[in-house]
Design a protein that fits this description.
single chain, 295 residues, mainly beta, 5-stranded antiparallel beta sheet, 24 strands, flat
C-alpha cells in the first residue's frame, strides 16, 4: 500500500494588512499563475511589488501608501477569480532592515546576498566599496532578486582571501523610499583543499527523465544541488563542505521537472523517489568517487 498526500485544489483564503503598505494574501492548494490586481483608484506615482513567501502559501504585496480606508483587489489563478476588500488601519510602515546572507565565511558554492525585509527598487553601486585584504577593488556584478527581497553580488572568489564591503548611506532604497545607513560586511573564503567531492555514476534503466538531488541534514531535507538527466550519466558534485550527504532520484514521469504526488480519484500514483543506499560522508580534501546508483 502506498500512502500519499494529495495536492489540494486551489482556494483563496483572505487578504490582511500586516503593516502600513503591506498586505498578505493567503491561499491553499496548487497555484498556476496567481496574480493580484488592484481595482481601487491609485495616485499616479503608485508602486506595488508582490512576491511569494518561501515555503508558505502566502503572497506578500507591498505598495506605496496613500490616503484610503480600504483597497479592492481581484485575485486570479487559472480559471478562478476572487474579489476582496482589505481594510487599512495600520499607521506605520516597516523600517528598512538589511543583513548579510552569510556569517564570517563565504563558501565557494554560495552567493553573497544583502537581504532586506522590504522590496528594493534602486541600488547605487557607486556608493558600494568592495575590496580584498590588500584593499584592491573587486570587480563584481549585482542584481536585485525578483523572487526575494535580496541583492546578489557576483564576483570571482579566490581561495583564502579576506573581503570587505562598505555600503554608504542611500545606496539602497526600498519601495517606501527608505534608505540604508552605513553598512560594513567582512568575510573570508577557505582553501580549495577544505572541500570535498562526490562523483556518482547514474545508471538510468527506466528510460524516464530523472531528477537527481544532493541533500544534507539529518532529515534529508536541505537541497544542496539538483540536476536533470534523461539517460545514464556520471555526475560530479564539487566544492562540498565536510558533511554527510544523501542522493535521491525522482522518476519524472510527466517530464515537468518537479516531483508530483498522486491523485486518488484519477488513480494516479505519486512519482517514485529512490534513495541511494549509502550515506556519503565528506571530509576536507576528500574525493568520494566510484559510486554507482542504478535507477
Amino acid at each position: 500500500i502506498v500512502l500519499f498526500k494529495e495536492v489540494q485544489p486551489y482556494k483563496f483564503k483572505r487578504g490582511k494588512e500586516t503593516s502600513k503598505g503591506k498586505i498578505v494574501f493567503g491561499y491553499e492548494g496548487a497555484i498556476t499563475d496567481l496574480q493580484v490586481k488592484i481595482l481601487s483608484e491609485t495616485p499616479k506615482d503608485f508602486k506595488s511589488i508582490s512576491k511569494f513567501e518561501i515555503d508558505k502559501d502566502t503572497l506578500n504585496y507591498w505598495f506605496t501608501p496613500f490616503e484610503a480606508d480600504s483597497l479592492n483587489f481581484t485575485i486570479s489563478n487559472a480559471n478562478f477569480l476572487d474579489s476582496v476588500t482589505v481594510k487599512l488601519r495600520k499607521k506605520k510602515t516597516d523600517s528598512l532592515i538589511l543583513s548579510s546572507s552569510i556569517g564570517r565565511t563565504l563558501h565557494f558554492r554560495d552567493t553573497f546576498f544583502i537581504k532586506g525585509n522590504n522590496p528594493f527598487i534602486k541600488m547605487d553601486t557607486s556608493k558600494i566599496s568592495f575590496v580584498d585584504k590588500d584593499t584592491l577593488k573587486i570587480k563584481y556584478s549585482s542584481y536585485i532578486s525578483s523572487k526575494e527581497n535580496k541583492i546578489g553580488l557576483i564576483f570571482d572568489k579566490k581561495p583564502q582571501q579576506n573581503y570587505s564591503i562598505k555600503i554608504l548611506p542611500s545606496a539602497i532604497i526600498d519601495i517606501f523610499e527608505q534608505k540604508n545607513d552605513t553598512l560594513n560586511f567582512n568575510f573570508a573564503t577557505k582553501e580549495i583543499e577544505d572541500y570535498g567531492r562526490i562523483t556518482m555514476n547514474i545508471l538510468n534503466e527506466t528510460s524516464e527523465n530523472l531528477i537527481i538531488e544532493l541533500l544534507e541534514g539529518k532529515n534529508k531535507d536541505k537541497l544542496v544541488e539538483r540536476k536533470f538527466i534523461t539517460n545514464s550519466k556520471e555526475l560530479v558534485f564539487n566544492l562540498l563542505e565536510p558533511k554527510s550527504y544523501f542522493i535521491r532520484a525522482i522518476v519524472d514521469t510527466n517530464k515537468n521537472n518537479k516531483w508530483d504526488t498522486g491523485n486518488y480519484l484519477l488513480k494516479l500514483q505519486p512519482e517514485r523517489i529512490i534513495y541511494f543506499s549509502e550515506e556519503l560522508k565528506i571530509r576536507a580534501n576528500y574525493y568520494l568517487d566510484g559510486n554507482v546508483f542504478t535507477i
